[in-house]
Amino acid sequence: MKTSVTKIIFLFMATLGLAAVQAQQSYFDVKLWENGLPNSNGNDSGEYILQGKNYKPVMRVFLPNEEKATGRAIVCYPGGGYVQTQLDHYADDWALFYTEMGIAFIVLHYRVPNFIPEVTISDALEAYNQTKLHAKKWNINPKDIGIQGLSAGGHLASTVTTHFQDSIQAAFQILIYPVITFEEPYAHEGSKSRFIGNEPLLKENATIAEKEKYEKHKAKYMQLKELYSNEKHVTENTPRAFIAVSDNDKLVMNSVLFYTALHKNKVPAVLHIYPSGGHGWHVNIKNNRFLFAEQVEEELKAWLSTF
């Protein structure tokens, strides 16, 4: 009899706990560019798709309970190698972590560049601006909105904070195993090629006209590679940063390069390199939780409490 009562109490409490998590995980979606897209990647037909390749961008908004809300917000750019984004994956990984701290969390399902960087950048900027525009309604301090980026989304985040900081004025940035540079030998070739295209090749026995065309394309490619190697564009106005990566991630030097540039420009920054975990790890237990997830959460909480 006692055992049965205990089981009933346990199930009741578990149900309450699940309901509480579900309530805190509630969200709503906001479609961007409903009056028409400002540019095209050549794949703009179709419906709103919340997984994989996307035709039209969507923000998924998670707001903390009013009694917990601090006014702080984070706009998150997921990874996916600039070929896709996975909205549920990144929302599940981080939303509850932030809302429990009273921080609003906005995940952007952006259009992939398809060799046209302006497309993805415009979505990223618009998501940030829409968050500011809705700040009063969403109980957000417009001066305390940061950016988070993961993997290719880390490249997008660092692009926004180095190239457009004067216009958006992000309060801080959180970069998780980010792509940063397009320079060899540390570039992630997949993200680079999908963002700016492939390096042009000169075929054997090329004509004079073909050589001239090659030179123009090569010059343009080199210009774009320099422009979007974001460690080269850090200034004293770049927002403070929290960077986390695994030592056995092939992109670890991307984080080191960016941290070094921030330090050189006297921008407050921390870099955490964990012993293992590779690339694309998760902090949510449902997604094969990262061995050092607890340390990431503790260190990120501590960092966020310093300003």
In short:
The protein is of the alpha/beta class and about 300 residues long.
Task: Give a description of the structure.
Helices cover 40% and strands 15% of the residues. The N and C termini lie far apart (54 Å). An eight-stranded mixed β-sheet has the order 1-3-6-4-7-8-9-10, sandwiched between helices. Strands 2-5 form a two-stranded antiparallel sheet. Strand 9 (241-246), helix 8 and strand 10 (269-274) form a beta-alpha-beta unit. Helix 3 (117-133) packs across helix 4 (152-163). The chain has helices at 2-24, 87-99, 117-133, 152-163, 165-168, 189-196, 208-227, 252-264, 293-304; strands spanning 28-31, 51-52, 58-62, 73-77, 85-86, 104-109, 145-150, 173-176, 241-246, 269-274. It is an alpha/beta fold. The relative contact order is 0.11.
